[in-house]
Design goal:
Helix content: 25-40%
Number of helices: 7
CATH topology of the largest domain: Nuclear Transport Factor 2, Chain: A
CATH architecture of the largest domain: Roll
Distance between the termini: 13 Å
Structural class: alpha+beta
Length: 298
């Protein structure tokens, strides 16, 4: 949780490497009409997917039998992809897709890449529910005046279940109540964070980020590595943790736990994870003392 690398950023970095290699040629200047057209096409496809309409969602896929589409690194032809999704959608009652971010990279007057990442939630007819983090790249090309998808790559990562999230939120809320009763200083934080992790062995790490004005600016963080606890202080290298989304979302008036999108913690736990954050207020219920977090590895 020291410095985050989001999956969306990984997509963009991968795209940069692809362009730098010389294939395709460097992107042309932005063409608003192309970006707008592709964006509208994607909105229509997402809306169809939310209605569980496979034929409408994948209608723009190229008919070329040589075209290849990837799902979590597995290659599919168009003729195999549609039956796969029909079977996957059959037990579902409902599906929703919430984008955390998207971008259109215009390659030319008749070609563009659409990049998107976010959360997919589905509810089964049997009553069960699941949630995944989605990351997608769609390659659009205009052929004879019509836009079609000549390649697409979708990957997903299962997110913690509602029960798992509830356990984390309960534990973190209890810790926050404890901190309200017995204020936590930056100096005392590592020992109490270790004790919290010891009581919750499924958690990867935990942090207490001191709010501005409540003492020296510091965010002690404890995480597991190789069977032991490692203590670090976020921000010692100049990183402003008060601008990080795990801090700002909790500090911006949240009354309960909030969850991050999945990300890779390159310098701390060195794992893909999600972070639950909760604000800690003083006795008056208004003064923000800091933000407590709990990391759950994926």
């Amino acid at each position: 949780m020291i410095k985050k690398t989001s999956l969306g950023c990984l997509i963009l970095l991968g795209l940069g490497a692809f362009s730098a290699a010389g294939e395709p040629a460097p992107a042309a200047p932005a063409a608003p009409d192309v970006a707008a057209e592709v964006t509208e096409k994607m909105k229509a496809m997402i809306a169809a997917a939310e209605k569980l309409d496979v034929d409408a969602a994948f209608a723009p896929l190229a008919q070329d039998p040589k075209a290849v589409f990837f799902l979590n690194a597995y290659p599919f032809s168009r003729s195999a992809l549609l039956p796969f999704f029909r079977k996957a959608y059959e037990p579902l009652k409902a599906q929703s897709i919430r984008l955390s971010g998207s971008q259109v990279k215009v390659l030319g007057p008749d070609s563009a890449l659409w990049l998107g990442w976010g959360t997919g939630r589905n509810q089964a007819k049997s009553g069960g529910a699941a949630e995944q983090f989605l990351a997608e790249t769609w390659v659009w090309q205009r052929v004879a005046g019509d836009w079609q998808v000549v390649h697409y790559h979708e990957s997903w990562q299962d997110l913690p279940s509602a029960a798992a999230k509830a356990r984390v939120e309960k534990a973190l809320s209890g810790f926050a109540a404890e901190v309200r009763r017995r204020p936590l200083t930056a100096a005392a934080a590592p020992a109490r964070l270790r004790a919290f992790l010891g009581r919750n062995p499924r958690l990867l790490g935990s942090c207490f980020a001191v709010a501005p004005g409540q003492g020296p600016k510091a965010a002690p963080y404890v995480y597991r590595r190789g069977g032991r606890f490692v203590d670090v202080t976020i921000g010692e290298d100049g990183f402003d943790y008060t601008a990080a989304d795990w801090y700002t979302r909790a500090a911006a008036g949240a009354q309960g736990p909030v969850w991050s999108d999945p990300y890779y913690d390159a310098e701390g736990g060195q794992a893909f994870m999600v972070t639950c954050s909760i604000p800690v207020y003083g006795p008056d219920g208004k003064s923000l003392l800091g933000v407590l977090t709990a990391d759950l590895a994926l």
